[in-house]
Amino acid sequence: MKFLTQNETELVQIVDGPINVPAIIDQLTNELPTEEPFYVMNIDDIVRKHQAWIEKMPRVVPHYAVKCNDTEVVCATLAALGASFDCASKGEIAKILALGVSPDRIIFANPMKPSSHLRYANANNVKTMTFDSEIELHKVRKFCPDAKLVLRIRCEAEKAQCPLGKKFGCDPVEEAPQLIKAARSLNLDVIGISFHVGSGCSDFPIYYKAISFARDLFDYAKQLGYEFNLLDIGGGFPGDHGTSIDEVSLIVNTALDKFFPDKSVRVISEPGRYYVASAFTLITNVQSKRTCLNPVTGTVDRMMYYLNDGVYASFNCILYDHQVPKLRLIGQQGGKTYKSTIWGPSCDALDQIAETIILPELQIDDWVVFDDMGAYTIPVASPFNGFPLPKVFCYVSKDTWDMMDNLTTLADESLCNSSTADLMINYENVVCA
């Protein structure tokens, strides 16, 4: 087996048998230099997530939230599996259209859209889009008059990793009816209701409440001559190892059966972290170390370790997504444990991964692994202070590849840099046996 590269960042390999991430990490840490961090991406994990979604919520068509992780292999894999896409900008729309995805598989799910992005969507036949204010309606009418509009209401979970209600969504009782009236007066085509309970939701009954609000607004709109046919239940679904969508799917399915028994209403969603969180494992390395002594006793008070990745790169998820990274060690470290602080490599004191964690003593060049690092990490990373971003090593089992190969071509020549002979033309050429 050998790797092919895509833009020098993503490397893909077919392997026989199931994907064994710990074994892959052991192999790579023995072969690669210790200077740069890297990711191991398990494509099989994404495929399993999609299969679980279809099995547990067969009526809900997932529209992957591109902002969560816009890695081309992720998007291409989901495109081939039949998922659709939630795009928030002209750039994200362009990325998905470049995969050969039909415009009708995209929802422009940003309630506040720049005028130039509306013009781009209109020129590329991306018609389904959200709104939550009357001013946005006038803008849409000007730049995309035949848009298929979806009114975003606010119904937020009390427990969510990233609440969104302060920024987006109208009140479903007071504001929403007025906005539907305004759209009717402007002769705009509103086709349904959307909501987002908050990213990383852990208050699943809120979906039931939000779907009931949507039912009321479907009925109200009918009085104005609308025939809504789309319900978008947003995101918020868990994706880390050890989580499942069993509970939330039961609540969603029960609510749909009660409030939307008519199967002519199309139901979609906007999962992001569900698909990618557990598919990416980050491997870092101890580059520097400092021992802090107690000034009174002279004993070790704290160990400080400096890794080759930090909050300006992969661990931006600490700042922007409120994540608590899950650390594990590679090797036989043992003996006495110490209070330890984990830092990133930059010169900024904000660059702290863990303030206090109990660890055995680590040495320079020890590897440190972080699981569940696929959501809201890669797209936000920057090479601050000149430190390189991690490469992504992608793995797919032969069984999964054969299944995917039977579905469709996953990528298009537009994904590739034609100046490099070994870049991929389509998904089956990602891997070279």
UniProtKB/TrEMBL annotation:
<feature type="active site" description="Proton donor">
    <location>
        <position position="347"/>
    </location>
</feature>
<dbReference type="InterPro" id="IPR009006">
    <property type="entry name" value="Ala_racemase/Decarboxylase_C"/>
</dbReference>
<dbReference type="Pfam" id="PF02784">
    <property type="entry name" value="Orn_Arg_deC_N"/>
</dbReference>
<dbReference type="InterPro" id="IPR000183">
    <property type="entry name" value="Orn/DAP/Arg_de-COase"/>
</dbReference>
<dbReference type="InterPro" id="IPR022644">
    <property type="entry name" value="De-COase2_N"/>
</dbReference>
<protein>
    <submittedName>
        <fullName>Putative ornithine decarboxylase</fullName>
    </submittedName>
</protein>
<dbReference type="GO" id="GO:0005737">
    <property type="term" value="C:cytoplasm"/>
</dbReference>
<dbReference type="GO" id="GO:0004586">
    <property type="term" value="F:ornithine decarboxylase activity"/>
</dbReference>
<keyword id="KW-0620">Polyamine biosynthesis</keyword>
<feature type="modified residue" description="N6-(pyridoxal phosphate)lysine">
    <location>
        <position position="67"/>
    </location>
</feature>
<feature type="domain" description="Orn/DAP/Arg decarboxylase 2 N-terminal">
    <location>
        <begin position="44"/>
        <end position="277"/>
    </location>
</feature>
<comment type="similarity">
    <text>Belongs to the Orn/Lys/Arg decarboxylase class-II family.</text>
</comment>
<keyword id="KW-0456">Lyase</keyword>
<dbReference type="InterPro" id="IPR029066">
    <property type="entry name" value="PLP-binding_barrel"/>
</dbReference>
<keyword id="KW-0663">Pyridoxal phosphate</keyword>
<dbReference type="GO" id="GO:0033387">
    <property type="term" value="P:putrescine biosynthetic process from arginine, via ornithine"/>
</dbReference>
<comment type="function">
    <text>Catalyzes the first and rate-limiting step of polyamine biosynthesis that converts ornithine into putrescine, which is the precursor for the polyamines, spermidine and spermine. Polyamines are essential for cell proliferation and are implicated in cellular processes, ranging from DNA replication to apoptosis.</text>
</comment>
<dbReference type="InterPro" id="IPR002433">
    <property type="entry name" value="Orn_de-COase"/>
</dbReference>
